[in-house]
Specification:
Elements: E1 2-7, H1 16-28, E2 32-38, H2 40-47, E3 57-61, H3 72-78, H4 83-93, E4 97-102, H5 106-117, E5 127-129, E6 131-133, E7 139-143, H6 153-171, E8 177-181, H7 192-203, E9 208-213, E10 225-227, H8 230-255, H9 259-267, H10 269-279, E11 287-290, E12 295-298, H11 305-320, H12 323-331
Parallel strand pairs: 1-2, 1-4, 2-3, 4-12, 7-10, 8-9, 8-10
Antiparallel strand pairs: 5-11, 6-7, 11-12
């Protein structure tokens, strides 16, 4: 039985989305055990009248909620009874709890995970690693996407190792193709940090490093892992998601501008639905915080039931694959003590 704790507050559609997602995940995964963290009275009301295996679900009473506008360092000290902080403490203290999922504040989650959970041996800095779909039906991960705004070449090498192992062990990608996000594909492109990182990645035997990648090629299907600092990665991720959503909005607007277009859209309705599903982040889970001693996944703040289910499935798959043990074994070959 794999035990996962779900922070049920902090997201836009909490707690309803988390409770409904938890029930659906329990039905889909027979060896999943869930702990819902949040106000017990409220959560009991959400569970009323719903069918689920009560033997595989419990509630951790946590009456406080962390808002996304609150300073991470403050909430860790001042909101110890919040759903997120109590979940983090239980994850740290209870060896039977394998993972945590939250759709709450990213800053608070990273700060709490680093100060309360800690890093895997040898890891300098944990990094967020979300996944996106590619045009050929595959997946590509971006590491880092916001946890570390400033990085060294050694950080980027560790991100590459962790993300490569993640894609291989959790998603079954053989010899993941690793690329370095840069302003051009030539080896000499970029600033000194990225040029040095290029050399380090090329020399790392465990990596299938294929060179630099320009941002326009993220969804091309030519890469499985994209390595970058958290600032560039966050911009890349949100720009890609935003562009996709705006294109869908424009497409819908154009269709409704003419009866001829409407007729064509009716004929192609199935295809348009497939395209919408392709771009919908709710279908791809959350961002795993690679490098922490236990599995931590950050779901999108606007996650609905479907996204919560995917995040829980993601956490279950990571734990089942024994990713942390495999990551530690490789990272320690390149152990570095920089803070």
């Amino acid at each position: 039985m794999i035990k996962i704790i779900l922070d049920c507050y902090g997201g836009d559609h909490c707690p309803e989305a988390c409770v409904d997602g938890a029930i659906e995940a329990l039905a889909a995964i027979p060896d999943l055990y869930l702990i819902l963290s949040g106000d017990e009275t409220d959560l009991r009301k959400q569970l009323e009248g719903k069918q689920y295996d009560a033997a595989r679900l419990e509630i951790l009473h946590a009456p406080q909620v962390i808002g996304c506008d609150e300073r991470p360092t403050d909430v860790i000290r001042m909101k110890r009874d919040s759903s997120m902080i109590k979940a983090i403490r239980l994850l740290r203290d209870d060896d039977s709890v394998a993972a945590m999922v939250s759709t709450g504040s990213s800053g608070a989650l990273v700060a709490a995970a680093l100060t309360r959970i800690g890093r895997l041996p040898g890891v300098i800095r944990p990094a967020f690693c979300p996944i996106l779909p590619t045009i050929n039906g595959g997946l590509v991960s971006v590491c880092d996407s916001g946890a570390n705004l400033e990085c060294t070449p050694e950080h980027l090498r560790q991100f590459a190792i962790m993300a490569s192992l993640y894609m291989e062990n959790v998603y079954g990608v053989q010899k993941p193709r690793v690329a370095l996000l840069n302003v051009g594909k030539e080896a000499e492109k970029g600033d000194e940090m990225r040029q040095t990182a290029y050399k380090l990645l090329s020399e790392t035997a465990e990596l299938n490093f294929v060179g630099n990648m320009e941002s326009r090629d993220l969804l091309s299907g030519n890469y499985d892992v994209v390595v970058c600092d958290g600032f560039a990665g966050n911009v890349l991720l949100k720009a890609t998601e935003g562009t996709a959503m705006e294109l869908l909005i424009k497409l819908k607007k154009d269709i409704y501008s003419s009866w001829v277009y409407k007729l064509g859209a009716a004929i192609m309705a199935k295809m348009f639905k497939a395209e919408k599903d392709f771009f919908n982040y709710q279908n791809y889970g959350g961002s795993v915080l690679l490098g922490t001693s236990k599995v931590v996944i950050k779901g999108h703040g606007s996650s609905r039931k479907e996204a919560v289910v995917k995040c829980l499935e993601q956490a279950w798959r990571i734990q089942s694959s024994e990713l942390n043990a495999k990551t530690e074994a490789v990272i320690c070959k390149y152990e570095h003590y920089e803070l």
